[in-house]
Amino acid sequence: MKTEHTDFIIGRHPAVMALKSDQEINKVFIQSGLKADAIAQIIKLAKEKRLVISNVPKTKLDQMTDHQNHQGVVLAVAAYHYASIDDLFANAEKKREDPFFLILDELEDPHNLGSIIRTADAAGVHGIIIPRRRAVGLTSVVAKTSTGAIEHVPVARVTNLVQTAKELQSRGVWLFGADMRGKDYRTWDAHGAVALVIGNEGKGISSLLKKTCDEMLTIPMIGHVQSLNASVAASLLIYQGFNSRHPLA
């Protein structure tokens, strides 16, 4: 497992989720003057872990979080952990399920990544793969947007997505890419070991990675807008995968 730079977890619900997890936390910052009942659970969990709790002015938290909506709670955390590809396979094996992975090709918006992680957790995705360069990583904004899901979905960060895609294929995983041209996503049967490839917000999937995919999926649109936000498109496709893997009785 790899660890990145020190970061912050911002907001009450993400803080609770982090405190309940194995995330390594260095310090807890609480805004002075907050009502005790609003943060009672956070203080209780922090004390159980014997963490240092600092009461600081709101201006201090504003400065630490670049004026994001911190709700009076900030955790200083050690590095977010990046999983390996083997960790992702192990996560599926632990649940006795065929692997269901996401590959995110140069996603740049941390809010999109956080939302996708949240959906991935809800739909039982076993892991996410992102590139090391030209893409957002696991930041405090991603963590807050994921509302705690970042603690439950392993994320692998790799040097070359195309090489990783070919490795997945060699291990029995079929790759399905999201594209304007492809088969209707509503016909997608995601049984077996699969990976869903989502492209960059503006450019889509890079040409080499697209050529590596086994099949392309498209979301039909009949309105005036012929594109969807990356996290919205990903959510539709993820839940089609969920629907086919967990059909109604």
TrEMBL record:
<comment type="similarity">
    <text>Belongs to the class IV-like SAM-binding methyltransferase superfamily. RNA methyltransferase TrmH family.</text>
</comment>
<dbReference type="InterPro" id="IPR004441">
    <property type="entry name" value="rRNA_MeTrfase_TrmH"/>
</dbReference>
<dbReference type="InterPro" id="IPR029064">
    <property type="entry name" value="Ribosomal_eL30-like_sf"/>
</dbReference>
<dbReference type="InterPro" id="IPR001537">
    <property type="entry name" value="SpoU_MeTrfase"/>
</dbReference>
<keyword id="KW-0808">Transferase</keyword>
<dbReference type="GO" id="GO:0006396">
    <property type="term" value="P:RNA processing"/>
</dbReference>
<keyword id="KW-0489">Methyltransferase</keyword>
<feature type="domain" description="RNA 2-O ribose methyltransferase substrate binding">
    <location>
        <begin position="8"/>
        <end position="83"/>
    </location>
</feature>
<dbReference type="Pfam" id="PF00588">
    <property type="entry name" value="SpoU_methylase"/>
</dbReference>
<dbReference type="GO" id="GO:0032259">
    <property type="term" value="P:methylation"/>
</dbReference>
<dbReference type="GO" id="GO:0008173">
    <property type="term" value="F:RNA methyltransferase activity"/>
</dbReference>
<dbReference type="GO" id="GO:0003723">
    <property type="term" value="F:RNA binding"/>
</dbReference>
<protein>
    <submittedName>
        <fullName>TrmH family RNA methyltransferase</fullName>
    </submittedName>
</protein>
<dbReference type="Pfam" id="PF08032">
    <property type="entry name" value="SpoU_sub_bind"/>
</dbReference>
<dbReference type="InterPro" id="IPR029026">
    <property type="entry name" value="tRNA_m1G_MTases_N"/>
</dbReference>
<dbReference type="GO" id="GO:0005829">
    <property type="term" value="C:cytosol"/>
</dbReference>
<dbReference type="InterPro" id="IPR013123">
    <property type="entry name" value="SpoU_subst-bd"/>
</dbReference>
<dbReference type="InterPro" id="IPR029028">
    <property type="entry name" value="Alpha/beta_knot_MTases"/>
</dbReference>
